[in-house]
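Predict the 3D structure for this chain.
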Amino acid sequence: MASGMLFSDSLWIWRNPAKAIQKTEIQHWAEVEKAVQEGKGLVMLTPHLGGFEIIPRILAKHFQATIMYRPARQEWLNTIIEGQRSYPNMHFVPATIQGVRTMVRALHQGEAVGILPDQVPSGGDGLWTPFFNRPAYTTTLAAKLASRNQSPVIMFSAKRKGLGQGWIFDAMPLAPFSEDPIKAAQELNQALETTIMKAPEQFIWAYNRYKHPSGAELPPSN
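Done. Predicted structure below.
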């Protein structure tokens, strides 16, 4: 159900970006402005919840945003998604070393970068950390990017109000991540849990957040 609704949200937002923005209630925007004014860039974290595709479009109305994505395996599908996501001030980079380098440069230039923090990273690019009391292979990229330039980090969400009623855009600033990678991954998952529990029925639970990616060490035994 959540997957179907999220797909419907995304499709409508892609095709009607201006109308979608008008249907969005903005909360805590002052937190975003405060973070941007620091001049150290901004690390944006956006989980797969509600109408998450509206978030970069709202942000791009105010500043440039470089967003990392994982290309679809089917080239034809990837072409469609990239075309639909195209929007002024939004720049998409693949989840590769080159993509990471592009995001680092953007942060050093004081720009914003976006990551989907609930995606399972490739083997070697994450750590096993509890997510709703189960070990989940968790990205370390968000903490690494933030630490390079002491960039502020904000967890964004776009909770669906109701069918056809729009979304509630919210911004939750996070405290600086710990220098300890394991603790930083735990902090990320705790922030994710807090955000998801605002509308747990709108999160894609069907996505296998607990899968074991190829090349990753085995998860810790209970």
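The chain has one domain: 2-202.
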